[in-house]
Structures are given as structure tokens and as C-alpha cells.
Write a structure and sequence with these properties.
Blueprint lengths: L1 H10 L3 H19 L7 H13 L3 H13 L9 H22 L5 H28 L7 H6 L4 H5 L5 H17 L3 H12 L16 H11 L3
Helix pairs in contact: 2-3, 2-4, 4-5, 5-6, 6-9, 9-10
């Protein structure tokens, strides 16, 4: 379900089509919690998971509602709006993951909230070069305005100091939330190239990341 929702925005040309798909998933969740899931493979598996782990309906609805708002295809007004989006999508997914693992603990939820917000901010930074190729920029407008940077500056791939200052401020906000290994790895790399978000090295995936995460989890050093 998460992947389907995530791909809707990039796979539609009209907002109406996106709204229809979101409504399908909203109705699907209602059907699942009414013990009447639609005859669809993903819905069936989700229904089984909800019954097995007693998953909270609210988190599914928050993900759908926030993804629907995001169909407007506009930049975030400020960093707080980006964090709200991250909380209601990335963090909500982590809350569901914790419930699946049988973890219902306020401290774990607190950590998941920070991880989700940091992950949402990092995802926004990572996706910026790709979005720029489609003449779209979603970085918080308040930070861009603070440094006198326009969306066109990003679309043209400019690398002046004020452009890098925008990335620095946004990356710093992610770093405030926590130094989680997978996220901090990207923040470290973006710092290494002086916050030039278009640097080729930032587009490479870390092939060692799965092993790195396993070692960290084994040592319990998150």
C-alpha cells in the first residue's frame, strides 16, 4: 500500500485521477476495518496484518490524507509544513511498523517521530535534483526566500553559496532530530561536498548500507 500511495503523484497527469486513487485506498481501509476488504491482493494481505497485529486505523488514514494534500504539487511553505508531511507519512509508517513488531511504547513512538521527520527532510533533499529535471522544486519557500534563492536557481542547477546555504539550513533541521545511521550517512556526504546538492556523489546509492545497518542493529548503536 505504501508504495502504491507513494507512486500516485508521479504517475498521474491530472489531480482528479490522483484523488480517485486516494479515495480507493480510503475506502479500502474502511472496508478492512469493517471486516469486508475488497477482493484485491494488497487489501487482503493488509486485512490479515490488521487482524493479526491490531494495527491502528488512524495511522493509515493520516498517510492517505497527507499524500492527498501533497497532490497539489507545490513547494512547502516552510520547514514546519515539511515536518508535518513527514510526521503524517514517514513517522506514521514507523508507528505501524512498531505495532507490527509488538512494540507499543511511548519512548519508541517518540524516537519514531524524530526518525520519520528526519527521513522526510532527507528524502526531500535527495529528490531535489530529480524534481529539478522536471522543473519542480518542493524545498521550503521560507528558507529559500531567507537566502534570496528562487526556484529557477535550483532548476538551472546553480551552485552559488546562497543556494548551498539553503541546503545547509534544511539539512541542519534534519540533523537536529537525530543522528540515525542511514540518514546521517547522507547528511555527512552532503556536508562533504559543501552542501552542493547537485554533486554526482550524492546520486549514488550506498551498496554497503544494508551491511552497515545490520552491524549497527547487532551492536545496538542507533
Amino acid at each position: 500500500m505504501w508504495n502504491w500511495l507513494r507512486q500516485i503523484k508521479d504517475s498521474i497527469t491530472q489531480k482528479t485521477a490522483g484523488l480517485m486513487r486516494m479515495q480507493f485506498w480510503r475506502d479500502t481501509v474502511e472496508g478492512i476495518y469493517g471486516n469486508n476488504p475488497p477482493h484485491q491482493p494488497v487489501a487482503t494481505e493488509l486485512w490479515k496484518a490488521v487482524r493479526r497485529h491490531n494495527l491502528t486505523k488512524m495511522w493509515f488514514m493520516k498517510i492517505i490524507d497527507e499524500r492527498e494534500k501533497n497532490l497539489d504539487d507545490r513547494a512547502y511553505r516552510n520547514i514546519q509544513e515539511l515536518e508535518t508531511y513527514a510526521e503524517n507519512t514517514q513517522s506514521a509508517l514507523l508507528y505501524l511498523t512498531l505495532e507490527t513488531l509488538g512494540v507499543r511504547d511511548i519512548h519508541a513512538d517518540h524516537a519514531a517521530s524524530h526518525i520519520g521527520k528526519a527521513q522526510g527532510i532527507v528524502t526531500c533533499l535527495r529528490a531535489t535534483p530529480y524534481h529539478c529535471t522536471r522543473r519542480k522544486v518542493f524545498l521550503p519557500m521560507d528558507i529559500c526566500m531567507l537566502h534570496g534563492v528562487s526556484q529557477e536557481d535550483f532548476i538551472r542547477g546553480k551552485q552559488e553559496k546562497n543556494v548551498r546555504d539553503v541546503i545547509y539550513d534544511i539539512a541542519s533541521q534534519a540533523h537536529i532530530h537525530l543522528e540515525h545511521v542511514a540518514l546521517d550517512d547522507y547528511l555527512y556526504n552532503v556536508r562533504k561536498v559543501d552542501f552542493n546538492i547537485f554533486h554526482p556523489s550524492l546520486q549514488k546509492k550506498s551498496t554497503l548500507l544494508p551491511s552497515y545497518l545490520y552491524i549497527r542493529s547487532w551492536k545496538k548503536t542507533y
